[in-house]
Design a protein that fits this description.
This protein has 2 domains: 18-111, Orthogonal Bundle (Arc Repressor Mutant, subunit A); 116-164 and 171-194, no CATH class. It contains 8 helices and 2 strands; from the N terminus they run αααββααααα. It has helices at residues 21-32, 40-50, 59-71, 90-98, 100-111, 116-138, 141-163, 175-194, and strands at 75-78, 85-88. A two-stranded antiparallel sheet has the order 1-2. Helix 1 (21-32) packs across helix 3 (59-71), helix 1 packs across helix 5 (100-111) and helix 2 packs across helix 3. The longest helix is centred in the middle third of the chain and has 23 residues, at 116-138. It is elongated and about 70 Å long. The two termini are 25 Å apart. The relative contact order is 0.11.
């Protein structure tokens, strides 16, 4: 959970992008092919670490995938419970070598979720959310109303972006709207700076 509650964690609108079940299976095999034994929790953490936290498969996808791989005879468990360790069987190592390109493709599919632009957008979302919470905490009624107008226009702008034809065609001129939103933000910021310190 993030410092501002579940809504404002690393993925403010949920757990982040969902990977296909086959991608989870392939990523597990690829990790185990590197050698050593892994448990389910370590696999979740490793996948998250290698994708900067953008792809973080849930326990509900990792443990069934592990069970499937065990049923196929590709991995063998050691220990009990969810802390049991898994490693490749001889058959699993042969499969991993034969399907190395396919297994690596699971990370390639996640690369689209972890490019610099996506990471920068996630950082900006968190910064905006922090600002929203601060306005909510300390803002006056007029400042809260101004913030609502800015957020409402931002929401509409996000949907307009999705509705645009992503073919390089020039987007519709929204400069007037953007200027209005920017002016509203500036007014709210200036009013906030004039508020007495310590206002709750």
């Amino acid at each position: 959970m993030g410092p501002m509650g579940p809504m404002f964690g690393r993925h403010p609108f949920g757990r982040g992008p969902r990977a296909r079940r086959g991608d989870v299976r392939a990523a597990i095999l690829d990790l185990l092919a590197e050698g050593g034994s892994w448990n389910g929790y370590q696999i979740i953490q490793e996948i998250a670490g290698r994708t900067d936290g953008v792809w973080r498969p849930s326990a509900g996808s990792v443990y069934p995938a592990l069970q499937q791989l065990e049923d196929e005879g590709l991995i063998s468990p050691e220990g009990e419970g969810r802390r049991r360790m898994y490693s490749l069987t001889d058959e699993g190592r042969a499969y991993a070598e034969e399907h190395a390109d396919e297994l690596r493709a699971s990370w390639d599919s996640a690369a689209g979720m972890t490019d610099d632009t996506a990471i920068e957008l996630g950082d900006m979302i968190r910064q905006v959310m922090m600002a929203v919470m601060e306005v909510r905490r300390a803002g006056s009624p007029s400042q809260l109303a101004a913030a609502r107008r800015v957020l409402a226009e931002t929401r509409r702008s996000m949907y307009r972006i999705l509705a645009e034809d992503d073919t390089g065609e020039p987007a519709a001129d929204t400069s007037a709207t953007d200027t209005t939103a920017a002016d509203t933000t500036e007014t709210a910021t200036e009013t906030d700076s004039d508020a007495p310190e310590g206002t709750e």
